[in-house]
Design a protein that fits this description.
Length: 780
């Protein structure tokens, strides 16, 4: 990538922060529409129950109430769709029970939506909610992931054994043979703990219907407004797509949980027409805990067959993945396409076999959460590699080195082709950053205080930049995963760029402006980035899977190429030169080999003053768009080292040092990238040490439904991270050379933390989260 103009690779301060930090952001809940009303949802207090009667008479008569809706009202509309079809091992499609907008006949998890009350004020809506009389007949609840298929009770009649699908990939017989013949086999069984996303801004929606045009506007805290519109219109409500505008304004974080089409906003849109007024709903934190899609929740057995010298021969993985009560929008893809295909890690393991059982339980739906499948895969690989190293007496860094993929492109046994990487370089660098050489001294100092100290490694790889549509389609995606961009050059040479990606913390307004300003040779202040509005942006698949720069940024670059191509023709006319003789450099069109030139702004103005150029050759205006569908995923990779100090008397773990060296290919803004890694690592440490979504096994109640019970990491739980981005191996198939960075920290860090604790205590395993109690038990 050309860095002449100096915007690429520079730590430009985030432009969007001025409005966020001064309270000028416009979030969904800030939007108050004329004649605004308020909606609240009655949620099931039971994990599994038959709805014998839902009596809304008293609620309807309550002061200020406009209407009350229940599952009956939504019988004629579709269910919330799942965007990814996974076929069972026998070729039959996964079980897809209807996911109703409001529960109909049965409730299937605590927090399931039973009714929607719409009233003049929020207080009146809440007061009326209490007047709804529901007769629940409680049914046995299925909660546990590992035992769901044997529970004896079914979440859905369509899946009597609670299995949504059983799926596999790899060479089952070959792996079996490798394991049988191997001199050493390392084995582990563990759970990847359930996480509850908790973005700062809870989910929110404000839906309006316009009588004059019979059209809708939905403001919603969402990561992909076009997808939201498509799914809601085409699959659920049958509204013509052009009659619906979806706006995702400023969004206060999502981490995946705002990708999905939820019942709440769908019900609001439908009801807005019924009551003839806009309806706003904003989740409170308790509702967020209960009803946002959760993440992870796998139970896995893994076996790694090795030679005595540590060379890997075969990897077998059996995973049960909890999908919760209903199939959420991308749920089926997470434990399969985004998980099993990553189980080769950074290594040349020749035989790999993976079997995944995906099960329904009476818990909140489980779907993508930062990393989505790839943290679970990395945990499996990096825990078992560490376990094998300890058992064979090989240094954990050395065993990794002996197995690294070194030749690219590399086709893994589980369906991916890594285009480029240098795993040794990031490992070497992190050993320095972490001062591994000085570890023995620090350990001795800890021991002198009666404390234990441990070092844990994790060498992760992930596939992001979702996704090549051809690959995704072949693997069951029911939509394309391209991205769109539009560049509108104004007569003054200022530029508005529209992107289908959505920024909700990732800093696109800055990094995309860097990209555009660099390419056009203009100032960043001359570039405006617009996103998150189906009424403005031509199309978009949104932000998830760390795709925005690699896929969305490339779509913008392609549109810029078209702008420059047209600009060259206009410039050629102005300079009386041939089109082919004009080059564009540093914001100026020049006739090669002469001193003739015209600046970009003059060409822009000319485009809008059509008598200045021949009509028969060119249309007026300078406005181009492009779609980009990548040919492969991008494969960021890196090496993390965590160093912990453990107090065996209390079980307290202190993360003393955390070092990370990542390869994200070419980087647009190192400061933003570093911030992304910081956030991801904090979330990964949260998973390893604190966070755990727990349901009571008998009642199915969410026991961790508030910040009193669900521990998020705080600043003083975290050390100052040593984070570095490697010089990098540029991605080979996008023109930026960039790989995604938005999830890496959350993917790579949990096994580093657990490996460190195991190292400190000399134990083979410790479950996540490694709370003081579990650590204290292990220490004993
Ligand atoms: N970038 C860069 N150079 C690279 C790669 C990226 O400068 N080589 C920049 C990008 O231009 C962008 C940022 O880094 O400004 C992240 O880019 P990318 O890796 O493309 O990821 P996305 O923008 O697609 O963000 C999605 C990713 C995901 S999947 C989750 S989950 C997540 C995350 O981003 N959720 C977040 N980071 C988050 N950060 C915040 N604050 N809030 C969330 O909800």
């Amino acid at each position: 990538m050309n860095a002449r103009q100096g915007f690429i690779g520079r730590p430009v301060t985030r432009r969007e922060d001025a409005r966020f930090l001064t309270g000028a952001g416009q979030y969904t809940d800030d939007i108050v529409l004329p004649r605004q009303t308020y909606g609240v949802f009655l949620r099931s207090p039971h994990a599994h129950a038959r709805l014998k009667r839902v009596d809304t008479t008293a609620a309807r008569a309550a002061p200020g109430v406009l209407d009350v809706f229940t599952g009956e009202h939504f019988r004629e509309v579709g269910g919330l769709p799942c965007g990814w079809l996974i076929n069972h091992v026998d070729g039959t499609p996964m079980k897809e029970p209807k996911h109703p907008v409001l529960a109909d006949g049965k409730v299937r998890y605590v927090g399931d939506r039973v009714a929607l009350v719409v009233a003049e004020t929020l207080e009146q809506a809440r007061a009326a909610l209490a007047l709804i009389d529901v007769d629940y007949e409680e049914l046995p609840a299925v909660v546990d992931t590992a035992d769901a298929t044997k529970a004896g009770a079914a979440v859905h009649d369509e899946a009597p054994d609670n299995r949504c699908y059983q799926w596999n990939i790899g060479d089952i017989d070959g792996t079996e043979a490798a394991i049988k013949a191997a001199p050493h086999v390392a084995r582990l069984t563990f759970r990847n703990n359930r996480l509850i996303p908790n973005a700062i801004e809870p989910r929110a929606a404000n839906a309006a219907w316009d009588r004059s045009s019979d059209s809708y506007t939905l403001y919603v805290a969402n990561q992909n407004p076009h997808v939201e519109r498509l799914l809601m219109c085409a699959f659920v409500l049958g509204i013509p797509e052009h009659k619906m505008r979806v706006v995702a304004p400023d969004v206060g974080g999502g981490f995946g949980s705002k990708i999905f089409l939820y019942g709440e906003e769908t019900a609001l849109v439908w009801a807005a027409k019924r009551v003839g007024r806009p309806i706003k709903w904003t989740a409170d934190r308790s509702e967020a805990f209960l009803s946002d899609a959760h993440g992870r929740d796998h139970v896995t057995t893994v076996e790694l067959a090795c030679e005595r010298d540590g060379r890997f021969l075969g990897l077998r993985v059996n995973t049960t993945a909890n999908l919760g009560a209903y199939l959420s929008t991308f749920a089926s893809a997470v434990p399969t396409i985004l998980y099993a295909t990553l189980l080769a890690g950074q290594y040349t393991t020749p035989k790999i076999a993976v079997t995944v059982d995906a099960v329904f339980t009476n818990t909140a739906p489980v779907d993508a959460y930062r990393g989505a499948g790839r943290p679970e895969a990395t945990y499996v690989v990096e825990r078992i590699v560490e376990t094998a190293a300890k058992a064979l007496g090989i240094d954990p860094a050395e065993i990794r080195r002996r197995n690294f993929v070194r030749q690219f492109p590399y086709a893994t046994p589980v369906g991916l082709t890594y285009d480029t990487g240098d795993y040794e370089a990031t490992l070497d660098r992190v050993l320095d950053l972490a001062d591994v050489a000085g570890f023995a001294k620090r350990k001795a100092a800890s021991e002198a205080k009666g404390l234990k100290r441990g070092l844990g490694y994790s060498c992760y790889i992930e596939a992001c930049g979702l996704a090549p549509s051809s690959v995704a389609g072949a693997l069951g995606a029911r939509a394309g995963l391209f991205e769109a961009g539009e560049v509108r050059v104004h007569p003054t040479g200022k530029v508005t760029v529209f992107t289908g990606a959505h920024s909700h913390g990732q800093g696109h307004e800055t990094t995309f402006a860097q990209l555009v300003a660099d390419k056009l040779g203009i100032g960043m202040d001359d570039v405006d980035i617009q996103h998150g509005d189906t009424g403005k942006v031509l199309f978009g698949m949104g932000t998830y899977g760390s795709r925005s720069l690699a896929v969305g940024g490339t779509a913008i670059l392609k549109a810029l190429d078209k702008v420059i191509a047209k600009g060259r023709r206009i410039a050629a006319h102005l300079m009386e030169a041939g089109d082919d003789d004009v080059v564009f450099e540093d914001g100026v069109f020049k006739v090669a080999g002469t001193d003739k030139s015209v600046p970009f702004a003059q060409v822009a103005l000319t485009a809008y003053v059509p008598h200045n150029f021949p009509h028969d050759k060119l249309e007026p205006g300078l406005n181009e768009n492009a779609f980009y569908d990548p040919s492969n995923f991008t494969y960021p990779a890196g090496s993390y080292v965590c160093e912990v100090e453990v107090d065996p008397a209390t079980g307290q773990v202190r993360v003393d040092r955390f070092s990370a060296c990542d390869d994200f290919g070419n980087v647009i803004n190192p400061m933003i990238v570093e911030g992304q890694v910081h956030g991801g690592v904090a979330q990964g440490i949260g998973q390893a040490l604190f966070e755990h979504g727990v349901y009571d096994p008998d009642s199915g109640q969410l026991l961790t439904g508030s910040f009193m019970d669900y521990a998020l990491p705080r600043a003083n739980d975290l050390p100052s991270f040593d984070v570095e981005t490697a010089a990098g191996t540029p991605c080979t198939h996008n023109p930026i050379g960039a790989k995604g960075c938005g999830e890496a920290g959350a993917i790579g860090s949990p096994p580093a933390v657990i490996n460190a604790i195991c190292d400190a205590l000399g134990v083979p395993d410790i479950p996540m989260p490694a709370t003081p109690y579990t650590v204290w038990q292990a220490a004993r």
